[in-house]
Amino acid sequence: MEALLVxxxxxxxxxxxxxxxxxxxxxxxxxxxxxPIVLGILAATLVNHGxxxxxxxxxxxxxxxxxxxxxLGLSFxxxxxxxxxxxxxxxxxxxxxxxxxxxGATLVTFFLAEMGxxxxxATVAMAAHYGTPVLVIIGTTLGMLIADVPAxxxxxxxxxxxxxxxxxxxxxxxxxxxxxxxxxxxxxxxxI
Length: 192
What we know:
Blueprint: H1 2-15, H2 19-31, H3 34-62, H4 65-83, H5 91-95, H6 101-114, H7 118-130, H8 133-159, H9 164-183
Helix pairs in contact: 1-7, 1-8, 1-9, 2-6, 2-8, 3-6, 3-7, 3-8, 4-7, 4-9, 7-8
């Protein structure tokens, strides 16, 4: 249950102000059809984070526990730093696959925007850390939806009222605590 709750919370916080949340704002403004946008976000996130969770599980199976602990601890600390760097959305990402309709455009652009993004990397790290990739994938997907669905429905009105620096600082602190805890041996019951 911890894997589900932590992955949901961390990703929901990390996603606020992230380029995929900005993409949700743009798609909502452009298409004005929230349901296919939300379904596209859900599908893209499940596929993307499913692959990330599988990679995390594979890493856990091939890397020794001692090395894995250091890699994960340093990865979480790296995520803390990365979370403090503001994201910008590239206009090309919103132009990709418009001929596929609202759902298709959302699916393709979200999947591509999420490749190598901090929430995808966090999914890999948490799946390896907790050893329960399915719970982590469910959690990170819920976190994405918690942050991105409101963006689809209320758009820029909500974005202007969210204290982005505070939210990013909280997410960074959580990643840093996960990193330090991992380096200090938390998760030893998982073989890390």
